[in-house]
Design a protein that fits this description.
Oligomer: single chain
Structural class: alpha+beta
Mean pLDDT: 94
Radius of gyration: 22 Å
Strand content: 15-25%
Shape: globular
Low-confidence stretches: none
Distance between the termini: 43 Å
Helix content: 25-40%
Length: 482
């Protein structure tokens, strides 16, 4: 049972960058808001994020080819324009002295990647910058400050994007927490175990401790842990929402030998279903080295040896002296990845229950934008109607043809081999490619003969994900005319 009078106007489940940002926007409006989440954030993507303010640096050829991909880029661009004011407000309402830590981004194209991924990605970044008329500067790779790779990983090209910075994620989370409480918000160190519905509307949540919080609205910003909280919904609604799985990412916090760190982010284009190899400067001689991406049905808190090997081998692409540096911390986070690869924003069709999650690698960067939009939706105010396409109860968004999805699966899997610096006889890669194409093609057909999932959803051979895809597709088959 819940109280007759709600304890809160809004309960936000999830205390990562998105949940805290939404709580802060609502608290600044004078609402009674509770943000619920464990203080140690064991699974959160935000706590382990490199936190690049990546807009154009994240662009890929496939992103620019689809309507929904271009909308995602437009969202990133709008979010970039909000960060100056957002950071200033956080500094004024917290004890932090700085939140962003990098002056611009250097994108490098080096000899480790492959043409279809790295070269085409580098070109796509330039094309998007030109389209948006954003400034960038071609650099001589040999003159990029701090960058000193091994000769076998030397960059072929480099460009500097002055408008793309980075965020110190721990400082951001501290600032958001402080600003939220100073505006009257309540932080609850617990987890939401159940959303409570009465008479077809959300009326509160039950915490894992057994405590009940009543509220006029419940917003789920619980990332990769969201899907289990939707068990409160009728089955015909729940199955029409793409489940969220975990894009488990591993990164390293490294202390350089001489205490010198780059002034800017240094990164490659996106690679192998991840955000490329990147170094993000932090304070006190520390750099963030990231990041891997493994799409899994379960949340993860540990790193595989292979993931660590990939990151450690990548140090030679950035600075050959990093072999002597010290790993101070291994970080693991779980990016929220919906089955169709696009965010879940808005009402779930049950009054008072909202989703603000599924942002994959964009949530922290987009947090000022999405928090404002979601607050407007909750309050019944004008909002960005273009984002309505990401309503949670929706047919699958298919941003690729079957041929494109299969081709991307093959190319990026092969590309990861070159990232691992494999050494093979010259006639083996074509044979391996043939094997991957046949194996992935069979899996794609077994998942569904008509709908097209993103390649991340079928290359990792997670049968739980495949089963979730089949359930989701079946719920929409009749309505889609298939």
């Amino acid at each position: 049972m819940v109280d007759a009078a709600p304890n809160y106007d809004v309960v936000v489940a999830g205390n990562g960058a998105l949940g805290l940002s939404l709580g802060l926007v609502l608290a600044r409006r004078g609402l009674r808001v509770a943000v619920v989440g464990r203080a140690d954030r064991p699974y959160a993507a935000s706590a382990a994020a490199g936190a690049m303010n990546g807009c154009f640096g994240e662009v890929t050829p496939h992103l620019l080819r689809s309507e929904h991909g271009r909308l995602k880029l437009a969202m990133d661009y709008q979010a970039t324009g909000r960060w100056d004011a957002w950071e200033q407000g956080l500094l004024e309402e917290s004890d932090e002295t700085a939140i962003r830590t990098a002056n611009g981004t250097v994108v490098i194209l080096n000899t480790v990647g492959v043409h279809e991924i790295d070269t085409e990605g580098f070109r796509a970044i330039r094309a998007a910058l030109d389209e948006y008329k954003e400034p960038y500067e071609d650099l001589d790779p040999a003159e990029v400050p701090w960058l000193h790779p091994a000769p076998t990983a030397r960059p072929l090209h480099a460009m500097f994007i002055p408008g793309e910075h980075a965020v110190d994620a721990p400082a951001l989370l501290r600032a958001l927490s402080a600003a939220f409480t100073r505006n009257g918000g309540t932080l609850v160190d617990d987890l939401v175990g159940e959303v409570l519905l009465v008479g077809g509307r959300a009326v509160g949540v039950r915490l894992t401790s057994g405590t009940t919080l009543s509220a006029g609205h419940v917003a789920l910003a619980t990332g990769a842990a969201t899907t289990k909280l939707l068990d409160c919904l009728p089955e015909d609604v729940r199955h029409r929402i793409p489940a969220i799985v975990a894009g488990r990412g591993v990164a390293l916090m490294v202390r350089t030998t001489d205490g010198v760190v780059p002034e800017s982010v240094i990164r490659t284009p996106n690679r192998a279903f991840a955000c490329g190899l990147h170094v993000v400067p932090r304070r006190d001689g520390l750099i963030y080295l990231g990041a891997t991406n493994e799409v899994e049905s379960q949340l993860g808190t540990t790193a595989a040896i292979g993931e660590l090997n990939l990151l450690l081998s990548g140090t030679s692409q950035m600075h050959d002296d990093l072999v002597n540096a010290w790993v101070e911390r291994i970080m693991v986070g779980n990016r929220p990845v919906p089955l169709d690869g696009f965010p879940l924003l808005g009402s779930v069709g049950v009054e008072g229950l909202w989703l603000m999650t599924g942002t994959y690698r964009d949530g922290l960067h987009q947090s000022p934008l999405l928090a404002a939009d979601m607050a407007a939706r909750i309050l019944g105010e004008p909002h960005d109607s273009e984002l309505d396409v990401f309503t949670p109860v929706r047919p699958p968004i298919e941003a690729m043809t079957r041929e494109e999805s299969l081709e991307m699966a093959v190319r990026h899997t092969l590309g990861s081999g070159y990232e691992h610096e494999w050494r093979l006889p010259d006639d083996w890669p074509p044979m391996i490619e043939k094997h991957f194409r046949a194996a992935f093609g069979r899996t794609l057909e077994q998942v569904d003969p008509e709908f097209v999932p993103p390649p991340e959803m079928f290359i990792f051979a997670d049968e739980s994900i495949h089963a979730a895809l089949r359930t989701y597709y079946e719920a929409h088959r009749g309505a889609s005319g298939r």
